[in-house]
């Protein structure tokens, strides 16, 4: 027996407030990495940027990117050393990846990242793929896009959505508020968010909104409880960190040992759709 979950996709970037008191932290490696079902691993490495009351130019951020690390991924049968290369699709624009390993549902992937005195390990498992059944548009609020997926009530499941506007975004962006714990949901599940009240910004802080000409790529992923905790903590920091009357200072739970960040296995499926088209999304092959 299946039940439907309806998720509203949020298409904007959030910016948190800066603290008025800085605490110097020890140098640490920061890992941002994932492997999708059917996809290649992608890993980005950097170092903690020290807190400062002075503005830091984006030109200086490259000093904190780790370009000469050694990144290894193992699936229990094969071990592959990832190749580092420049990629303008991501920020920072340098990734470690390989075409010699693809993610498979149910497999566990162990990550090792080394650079100078830094040594980081992590592991993640790719759940089975999540599927979108259809897209519903809230025409009373033209910026609301609701994705309907099937959920098995006899299983414990977590879901995460990512979005990309073709011609604007070079990679998938985390869709805030589209993070689902099915045990907390009342079905059908819907998060009514008005994007029109939450302006979208590009990297130059220019305001924009989604238009009827835009084409979206949507990625829905089933994730494990560890990655749900990571994204839930991240969401709380973004939301509550902007409240001047409430300082949220909890740390982000992570599966990284020896550093910061995350290593995620995504049971994901990608779709393409137009926000105002009267049709179901088309799965990307």
If you had to describe this structure to a student in words, what would you say it looks like?
It is a single chain. The protein has two domains: 3-17 and 130-243 and 270-283, no CATH class; 29-125, Sandwich (Immunoglobulin-like), CATH 2.60.40. The radius of gyration is 19 Å and the shape is globular. It has 285 residues and is mostly beta strands. The chain has one helix and 18 strands. Mean pLDDT is 75; it is low at 5-19 and 187-208.
Summarize the structure.
Helices cover 6% and strands 39% of the residues. With 285 residues, the protein is mostly beta strands.
Give me some keywords for this one.
4-stranded antiparallel β-sheet, 1 helix, mainly beta, 18 strands, Immunoglobulin-like, about 280 residues, 2 domains, 9-stranded mixed β-sheet
Total number of β-strand segments? Answer: 18
Mean pLDDT: 75
Q: How far apart, in Å, are the first and last alpha carbons?
A: 27 Å
Number of domains: 2
Rounded radius of gyration (Å)? 19 Å
Shape: globular
> Beta-sheet strand percentage?
35-45%
> Which segments are poorly predicted (pLDDT under 50) over 5 or more consecutive residues?
5-19, 187-208
Counting helices, strands and paired strands, the structural category is mainly beta
Order of helices and strands: EEEEEEEEEEEEEEEEHEE
Q: Given the structure, what is the number of helices? A: 1
Sequence-ordered SSE layout with sheet pairings:
Blueprint: E1 3-8, E2 29-36, E3 42-47, E4 70-74, E5 79-81, E6 83-86, E7 94-97, E8 108-115, E9 118-125, E10 132-138, E11 144-151, E12 158-165, E13 173-181, E14 200-201, E15 207-208, E16 216-223, H1 225-240, E17 260-273, E18 282-283
Parallel strand pairs: 2-17
Antiparallel strand pairs: 1-11, 2-3, 3-7, 4-5, 4-8, 6-7, 8-9, 10-11, 12-13, 12-16, 14-15, 16-17, 17-18
């Amino acid at each position: 027996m299946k039940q439907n979950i309806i998720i509203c996709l949020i298409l904007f970037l959030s910016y948190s407030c800066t603290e008025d008191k800085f605490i110097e932290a020890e140098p640490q490696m920061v890992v941002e990495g994932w492997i999708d079902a059917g996809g290649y691993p992608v890993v980005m490495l950097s170092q903690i940027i020290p807190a400062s009351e002075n503005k830091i130019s984006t030109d200086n951020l490259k000093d904190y990117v780790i370009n000469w690390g050694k990144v290894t991924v193992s699936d229990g049968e094969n071990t592959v050393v990832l190749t580092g290369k420049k990629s303008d699709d991501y920020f920072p624009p340098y990734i470690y990846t390989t075409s010699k390993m693809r993610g498979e549902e149910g497999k566990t992937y162990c990550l090792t990242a080394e650079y100078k005195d830094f040594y980081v390990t992590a592991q993640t498992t790719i759940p089975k793929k999540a599927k979108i059944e259809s897209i519903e548009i809230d025409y009373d609020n033209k910026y609301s896009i609701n994705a309907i997926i099937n959920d098995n009530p006899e299983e414990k499941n977590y879901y995460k959505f990512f979005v990309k506007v073709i011609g604007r975004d070079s990679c998938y962006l985390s869709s805030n508020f589209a993070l689902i714990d099915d045990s907390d949901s009342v079905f059908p599940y819907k998060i009514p968010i008005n994007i029109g009240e939450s302006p979208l910004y590009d990297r130059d802080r220019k305001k924009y909104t989604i238009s009827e000409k835009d084409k979206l790529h949507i990625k829905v992923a089933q994730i494990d409880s560890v990655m749900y905790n990571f994204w839930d903590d991240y969401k709380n920091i973004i939301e509550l960190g902007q409240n001047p009357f409430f300082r949220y200072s909890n740390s982000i739970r992570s599966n990284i040992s020896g550093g910061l960040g995350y290593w995620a296995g995504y049971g994901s499926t990608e779709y393409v759709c137009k926000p105002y088209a009267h049709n179901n999304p088309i799965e990307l092959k």
